[in-house]
Amino acid sequence: MASTYGAAIIGAGWVSGEYVKAFRDHPQTNLIGMYNRTPGKATALMESHGVDALEYESMDDLFNDDRVQIIASCTTPDVRPEHIVRAAETGRHVVIEKPVALTREGVEQIRKAVTTAGVKSVTSYVLRWNPQLETIRALVDDGVVGDLIYAEADYWHPVKKDYPCYDWIVGKEIGGSAFIAAGVHAVDSIRWLGGEVVEVSAFSAGPKKNLDYTYDPVVVASLKFENGAVGKLSTVLDAETPYIFNTRFFGTEGTIQNNRVYSSKRYPGSINYWEFPTVEPDSGDVTHHPFVPEIAHFIECIDNDVESHASIHDAYKSMAVCFAIDESAAQGGVPVKVNLV
Known about the structure:
The protein is α/β, with parallel strands linked by helices. It folds into two domains: 5-126 and 291-311, Rossmann fold (3-Layer(aba) Sandwich); 127-283 and 318-337, Dihydrodipicolinate Reductase, domain 2 (2-Layer Sandwich), CATH 3.30.360.10. The chain contains eleven helices and 15 strands. It has a nine-stranded mixed beta sheet with strand order 14-13-12-11-7-10-9-8-15. Strand 1, helix 1 (16-25) and strand 2 (29-35) form a beta-alpha-beta unit.
């Protein structure tokens, strides 16, 4: 008989509602409760999704609840290390929202705590479960690209003032930087599909349209991959454009650009790119993101005692690329090695 797991959520913001639904609907999970600093907000969120569960009066009440085996951190990243470390040290499996933390030290605290405790983790680089990227991954694994020659990924998402996370995402104190706050999705996708990035050189530009940003909201980085390939990453949070997420992989056997594929060797009758219909990563709305398959994957990992492909043991490398990009941009494009240790 399959095990069942009690889950608790820290934070009752916009993304938390997606975890409420995912835990509500999975046959092996039971949402025990939520904690939020503002009294009543957690209850209102759970009730809006038809869930009758406990609103903890304090963080201590949540951590002292022995019915909880999984804790999801949906807080702002400045306090995430404290919560995830405590969850791991009390023997809970952890769901880590992105970004993992604002600093290398914060990421390392989480990685060390999870490793020492031996609990399972999954980081919500949620586009790994987007159908388009899952298909790209399958094509890459099948050898359609061959040896990587060039790759790029772009996260273009100018944040409007009515965006639910606007107040913290535009500020350096909690948002961190363009790549930490948002573009980490592009970083993680290029790593997951193209391989490890070992060196970067980046430039950034200050705000011109939205002057609320306290960090440079436009950043572009040149990349060197472990296998010798080169590439580009960009994050654009300040411009007049709808949300756009691009992934492109050029190789010795073929090329994949978003949901378009070309390979004269694999598909000898093709004279141009062919397109596969799919759910594209074309929205910044969290209701569009695949949290349900992410949680289903995580439960399978716990059941089978295996690490997620998006565990902290892999996720820290995406953050390491972000930190290297920020370091290079701060120095005007000086090449910076990515610390993957």
